[in-house]
Design a protein that fits this description.
This protein has 317 residues and is an alpha/beta fold. It contains eight helices and 13 strands. Helix 2 packs across helix 3.
């Protein structure tokens, strides 16, 4: 089986230091000898940040739109093209500062991508002074809070612009929003890169100031899994299962067959609403359910699906 390509998502509000971090990450991957590609999303019609990407690294850009709205489908297409056109170890996605991390993750988990990519981590970069002062609209406050809440790694950047006492306040509020994430307080986006492949790293190279709280996480905060499906699914049973597990399951999507129809459907579940879209008969797809949720464990999820009769016993394991 072909090795899956890692995907690492970079989020953070405008001016937080994402592009500087991306440049550092690309240098780090080059030293490791890994094959890298970049997918970059900007709101304007002209790309600015792409200048940090060396010419020998495959780059795809999505301009004049936000992943969370107008070009979510394009991101899935671009990811698929990158994996088909290049032999890669990792793809970095730098999302516009206006993108919601859950929507970015949602775009990365199209059923057609389930066999080729694996979400490795979501990194959120925070401008410490901006976070402290909160001089923005309520909508923007909610957005940057969610960018922190759904991250696996939170980079508290530009700490040279605030005092020690202010940094303590920033750390405390970020800890409250996301106690399970790795957190680093840094300047110029100088993240300890070892945590990307060594989740148990104690970050020994960091100063006491930088590593005085949560530096260890064993798994993604938001997890994804792909479950192959054999046979047809009872629509009512599936929707009852989703209603019972809606607190844990944020998204579910996939290609499925239903007991009340011979066709195959593209299934999407988001914000508590299931949707079914008939797939054209000439399109060849493999039935699969892709799930996104809070701390989900694939084996436990499969067992629940089996108990409800949604997934056959022979499919588990």
């Amino acid at each position: 089986m072909k090795k899956k390509v890692e995907v690492i998502i970079l989020s953070g509000f405008l001016g937080s230091g994402k592009s500087t971090l991306l440049s550092r990450l690309l240098s780090y991957e080059k030293k490791r000898g890994r094959k890298v590609a970049v997918l970059m999303n900007e709101l304007g019609k002209v790309s600015i940040d792409s200048s940090v990407v060396p010419s020998d690294i495959p780059l795809k850009e999505m301009l004049n739109g936000c992943i969370c709205c107008s070009i979510q489908g394009e991101l899935s297409v671009q990811l698929k093209e990158l994996t088909e056109e290049h032999t890669l170890d990792v793809i970095y996605i730098e999302a516009t500062g206006a993108a919601h991390p859950l929507d970015v993750l949602d775009a990365c988990t199209h059923p057609l991508l389930s066999a080729s990519i694996q979400i490795q981590a979501s990194i959120s970069v925070v401008n410490s002074k901006q976070w402290l002062e909160q001089k923005m609209s309520n909508m923007m406050k909610k957005l940057i809070t969610h960018q922190v809440k759904f991250a696996d790694i939170v980079l508290i950047n530009k700490i040279d612009q605030i005092t020690e006492n202010e940094l303590t306040k920033v750390k405390a509020t970020i800890e409250k929003e996301n106690p399970s994430a790795i957190k680093q307080a840094v300047t110029f986006s100088q993240m300890d890169m070892n945590i990307l492949h060594d989740r148990n790293s104690q970050l020994g190279k960091l100063s006491e100031k930088q590593r005085d709280f949560n530096t260890n996480v064993k798994s993604l905060h938001l997890k994804t899994c792909a479950i192959p499906i054999e046979g047809a699914i009872n629509r009512i049973q599936l929707e009852e299962f989703l209603e019972e597990n809606q607190a844990q399951l944020l998204r579910m999507k996939g290609f499925i067959r239903l007991t009340d129809s011979p066709a195959i459907y593209l299934f999407n579940y988001a914000y508590g609403f299931p949707m079914y879209e008939r797939v054209k008969s000439e399109v060849q797809v493999s039935p699969v359910l892709v799930c996104i949720g809070e701390e989900i464990i694939q084996e436990e999820l499969e067992e629940k699906l089996k108990e409800r009769g949604i997934v056959k016993v022979s499919q588990i394991g």
